[in-house]
Amino acid sequence: MATDQLSTTFAALADPTRRAILARLSQGEATVNELAEPFEVSLQAVSKHLKVLEAAGLISRGRTRQWRPCRLEAKPLVVVADWVNEYRQFWESGFDRLDEHLRLLQEPRKETER
């Protein structure tokens, strides 16, 4: 069964190590060794995480001589943000209803305070 891009992106983002790698790459390019430094896992494990992120289109790898920098690719994150934004109206309307309810609860209190 083929997996859609949004599902692939969410699956890649589901792991905290991969999210930390993306957070580091948001500051600029880095090598695999640089990305592996803060983690207590093998270089091979970090490489596997990078393969998942690359397959999801969240990172790309360049080649400068022997140096292969990884860089963040924002396009899949824009797709996720757009998808989440579709639900913004739903949760904002819920907050608006809550605000109205709280306002109504406080009105009688104001009248009794006079």
UniProtKB/TrEMBL annotation:
Pfam families from the entry? HTH_20
Tell me where the signal peptide lies: none
The HTH arsR-type domain covers 1-92
Domain of life (superkingdom): Bacteria
**NCBIfam families given in the database record:** HTH_metalloreg
Protein name per the record: Metalloregulator ArsR/SmtB family transcription factor
To which species is this protein native?
A: Amycolatopsis rhabdoformis
Task: Recall the taxonomic lineage recorded for the source organism.
Answer: Bacteria, Bacillati, Actinomycetota, Actinomycetes, Pseudonocardiales
